Amino acid sequence: MGKLTDVQIRNWIKAGAPVAVADGEGLTFTLSAKGTAAWTLRYRIGGKRKELTLGRYPDIPLTKAREIATAKRAEVQQGIDVAAEKRRAGQEAASAWTFRRLADDYFEKVADRLADNTLKGRRQQLRDYVYPKIGGTAAADVSAAEIVAIVEAASVKSLHVARLVLIAIREVFSHGIARHVVTEDPCAHIKAKAIIGGTKQQRERVMLADAELVELFKALPGLSRPNALMVRILLATGARIGELVGAEWSHVDFERAEWTIPPEHAKNGKQFVIPLPPMVAGWFAELQAMAFGSRYVLPIRTRNHGNEADAHMEPVTLNAALNTLAKTLGDKCRRFTPHDLRSTCRSHLGALGVDVLIAERCLNHSLGGLVAVYDKHDYLTERRRALDLWAAKLASLEKGEGFNVVALKRA
């Protein structure tokens, strides 16, 4: 080696014409028609001529190319086919279980066991916080320090999100161990509280009292009509905000006075039918008249002006409306969230004498234990009676009338 100089190489690159010039001892500088400059080592093994690409110029300068060529030639003299070894190493790397590949395998295996919302959440957590850092890293090479750094970075967004990110990573590695892709779990000794501190005391749910509900109804006209109807429906049915904003008109049966929540929208992944009192069915009818042909009960309003494709409203829209409502109400009503409307519905059902089992089923809560195993009755008739009673009370409170509680008699 030693026939080439850096000046020659730079001149060839400047000229741009394809070249292939030997430096000696098999080391060759090549310049393609597209202007790619690279080093190759030409050698023979087993009587056959072979070539090994060492890398590109100027990433690998002339002196470094000579060093690499010398080392590779020594391997050839020991009977090693260096080009074949490089190809084999590349194939092994391509087929290695990266963290992302392991995560994809995990989601494939648990797709039928986890609720859609859980799957969606975990995919999003890994996509936003984990893949950019270790997605392409071999799963077996991921360190505990890397995971701690990821959780800390996520905690800047939200402590709750950081905990969910750690749970998602832990689930993937647990799957990897069961699959014998990794032998050690780097999450084994990682505790969320050691990274981001303990869990804050959970906020107590609000049950709006009769007097607060009266003030709420007085203030509702201050909201847009769709937002006011959202508040009314959530309060009267005890539904979750995500179930309402995702509702489609194909889910609402006005003739049967029923709103069906499909499995993909339900938290427990099971279809659930909510009986609609006449007053609530009327609110849905109002929304339908304002939906300008959208498939959704609560479409994005700007679609009416042709600015967006058909899509449903996001929960944050109501959150913003409730913040405005709270300023209007002042100290007449405690600040509440959409989920507090669900809590209020459940609490008042109990106060109205509705049986615990019926009240729980009104909110689509799992009954648990042997009841869940053996009792397959959905109590639709009983739930309709309970929600009719609750709707009657809401109507009386809105009119400013007193409401005499009449407990439901047991069958």
Topology:
Elements: H1 6-15, E1 19-24, E2 27-31, E3 37-45, E4 48-56, H2 62-77, H3 82-94, H4 99-110, H5 116-134, H6 144-157, H7 159-178, H8 192-196, H9 210-219, H10 225-237, H11 241-245, E5 252-253, E6 258-261, E7 272-275, H12 278-289, H13 315-329, H14 338-351, H15 356-362, H16 369-374, H17 380-399
Antiparallel strand pairs: 1-2, 2-3, 3-4, 5-6, 6-7
Report what the structure shows:
With 411 residues, the chain is an alpha+beta fold. The chain folds into three domains: 6-94, Integrase, DNA-binding domain (Double Stranded RNA Binding Domain); 99-196, DNA polymerase, domain 1; 210-399, hpI Integrase, Chain A. It is 51% helix and 9% strand. The chain contains 17 helices and seven strands. It has helices spanning 6-15, 62-77, 82-94, 99-110, 116-134, 144-157, 159-178, 192-196, 210-219, 225-237, 241-245, 278-289, 315-329, 338-351, 356-362, 369-374, 380-399, and strands at 19-24, 27-31, 37-45, 48-56, 252-253, 258-261, 272-275. A four-stranded antiparallel sheet has the order 1-2-3-4. Strands 5-6-7 form a three-stranded antiparallel sheet. A hairpin with a 5-residue loop joins strand 2 (27-31) and strand 3. The longest helix is centred in the middle third of the chain and has 20 residues, at 159-178. The chain is elongated. Residues 370-375 have low confidence and may be disordered.
